[in-house]
């Protein structure tokens, strides 16, 4: 794993515009990682110890369907955040994710980021606001996928 700087984080779409001290605090919780294609980054129901900002590559988001393979409900790619369940108890993934291609990402230690948020309510507010935007986009995307699939059935 490689060290991440505040400058690197400040260039990420999701974090752009945060204060320098907030970026410094987040950088202390982050490292650069690589995942080969086919790697499961997270599994639905698993504990959320980490989350990622993707710098390259793509991951498929999936949900377990009883008696079947996981159903892909969307993808995330360059510039996207993967993971929002780390923010609220019980800290369990609401979906899974598998690398479609090799993925280079900035990985954050979720408990350390929660500690940063507890120490800086403005950071907590801003990350929550940004994550809610992501959640809303993913819900709309999932809805569109389900509507399209039902039209084909």
Structure annotation, total helices: 4
Report the CATH architecture: Sandwich
- Poorly predicted runs of 5 or more residues: none
State the shape: globular
User: How is the largest sheet built, in terms of strand order?
Assistant: 1-2-9-4-7
Q: Could you give the order of the helices and strands? A: EHHEEEEEEEEHH
Name of the CATH first level: Mainly Beta
Percent of residues in β-strands: 25-35%
Gyration radius (Cα, Å) is 16 Å
Structural class: alpha+beta
Do you know the CATH topology? Jelly Rolls
Helix content: 25-40%
Query: Roughly what is the average pLDDT, rounded to an integer?
Result: 92
Q: What would CATH call the homologous superfamily?
A: Jelly Rolls
User: How many strands appear in the DSSP assignment?
Assistant: 9
Count of discrete domains: 1
Biggest pleated-sheet summary:
5 strands, antiparallel
Q: Give the distance, in angstroms, between the N- and C-terminal Cα atoms.
A: 45 Å
